[in-house]
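Re: export button greyed out
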Amino acid sequence: MDVPNLTKKRIKDYLEAGKRFDGRKLLDHRNIEIEPCVSNNAEGSARVKMGDTEVIAGVKMGLGEPYPDHEDEGTMMTTMELLPLSSENFEYGPPRINAIETARIIDRGIRESGLIDFKKLCVKKGEKVWTVFIDLYSINDDGNLLDAGALAAITALLNAKIPKYDEKQEKVVFGELTTKKLPLTKDIPITFTFHKIGKAIILDPSREEEEASDTRLSIALSHGKKEIMVNAMQKGGEVPFSQEEIIKIIDAAEKKYKEIEKELFDKIEKNLKAKK
Amino acid sequence: MAFTKRPDGRKFDEMREMKAKVGVVPRADGSALFAFGDTIAIASVYGPKPLHPQHLQDPEKGVLRVNYDMISFSVNERKRPGPSRRGQEISKVTEWALAPALKIDNFQNTVVDVHIVILQANASTRCAGINAAALALAHAGVPMKELVSAVSIGKVDDKIVIDLIKEEEDYKEGEGSTDIPLAFLSESGKITLLQLDGKAQTKKLKEIIEAGKKACEKVYELQKKTLKEVKGE
Amino acid sequence: MISKQEKEEKNEKEKREIVVPGEIIVSGEDYLPGEWTEREGKNIIASRFGLADKSGRLVKIIPLSGIYIPRKGNVVIGKVLDITFNGWIIDTNAPYQSFLSIMECSKFVNKNDLSECYSIGDMIAVKVLSVKRKGIDLTAKGRNLGKLEGGIIIHINSNKVPRVIGKEGSMINLIKKESNCDITVGQNGIIWIRGNKIENELFAKKAILFVTEKSFIEGLTEKTKEWLEKNKKSKEEK
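Workaround output, generated via the alternate export path:
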């Protein structure tokens, strides 16, 4: 059942009083679980849960041609499938706009952060480069698949290893990984999607809050050389934001990044070590 | 060289370690995970619910719809996202495997949707999918006559083995490899899935089907145990 | 030597065990097949996953999970999905389409604009008049039925509703009193809570979720009373 009018109204009333149905503060996340290396057949993988929302990510690599204006750089492609398994609202068929948009926002955040060192993915300039495929799947939709997906994507990249390459046959030997990790920098992006409901701005909406949301702003940030950089932004939804609201959100995003980046990266590292 | 030893050291009649769990997709009406070793399938069920569009409804009874899909990184070589002909065929035979177990005649104009997703593949994926789906259907409270249990029997060279893995599927020497996925209804013992892909002598088939039945009984024991351990949620 | 209490608990456990579809619950001509069971020769077989209740001659299954099957006379809460020329199509989380005809509206209806009475997205408390092949017929005529205004809606497993209501309403009345809220519990697992303060609504919601989480334990009413006492104090301290 989709969220009824009276609940939407009530959510707005509660938020004006600074309260959420599950007792969280407006900018608090639900409990985040990060599990790296969940797949035997992926080059890198992860499962992320935010509350009951669950997304899995897999990194697969393949060989392909570089883009003509980036002859010595590898390429990447991000897809997201909103599986009908995860919600009665998702249908079979080619990806709808919500899956496409989500994947592209996550993609831009990773691409522009500089996390992947594409130059190190060149096998033969102008002819052969590695392509990094990031595939995301929703397993349970309880709101905020985007941020959960983005976190799963970077965790999968952080534990990805390059597959064996047979130089004689010029083919990838799938199923055999080298010990060489995917060439990454320290510029790890985190995506925060802020939702405006009535006058309030919240983070990590539950399913009900997401349905009651008027409009949203996703921001992907990462560590630049000297300061925090915004790598991607996307306003989604019909209702407009005021200038003040946008500035307020950008400030909140930077503050949030500084607040939770250590906790998240520590969690990823700890869980990675536990898997070995 | 004849096939005398299984690549993972199992006895010919030994199954991989199985794992089963219900409730893995909280949003669904019912859901479950089932694994044969490192072949992992999850299934979720929505329904019975009104079937839209109306022209697909059956005014005589409820309808079962099954969709089977593998995620891109369930296999070594990335599977491009999107439907495949293989997936569509497996969806259909899975529907035929599960339908006889359901009691949805009284649910006219409704549909029970079963979604099966293979997270990791090492052969026997359709059987893992059927086992997960049967658990998910029971968990969803769909009225059923009995459960359905499935397993892949193989004939590798001239040996009959239980619970085939990919390496055995790829065996090319001697008589090669034949894959026989089977599913049985848990109480009536009737066969609801039977496929064969390879070369097998007619007289070997009786033995193969017997082996399948025994193995499916073990699957049923685990399915039953998993359901009985569900606490009030 | 087992104590009387242990013996009683053992009996309770034996009377109720989880069964899977197709399993034989009891065997014998004396037993009668009740809800979600079937007779096959001498045996009574389970047709649905749940707790088998064999405390009397009538053997039935108490479902633990799964969808709500509507019964005549059930009070349910539904959401208006669509408006037709002669009524409203309601989503009650049931397997079948539910319909509320103009004739069964709780107040006067403007035939030219049904949305004046109930619009799409409204939540209404209704009663099931009949369950037929082509759908469920509802009525909004009756005490405490009709459009729900304000408050919040929560969803619980419909199989837990009897626990939340309690014997003759004892549990839900306790929660209503302690939280100072109006509460309507739909048999379909949809519950409406309205209080004059947000804290009260959230408190009632927490109490109901406590009951659903602990639904399988003995002495739940007592434990709920304790929980309410303890948490009411901390709520007031906030």
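The helical segments of chain C are 4-15, 161-165, 170-179, 198-213, 220-237. The button fix ships in the next patch.
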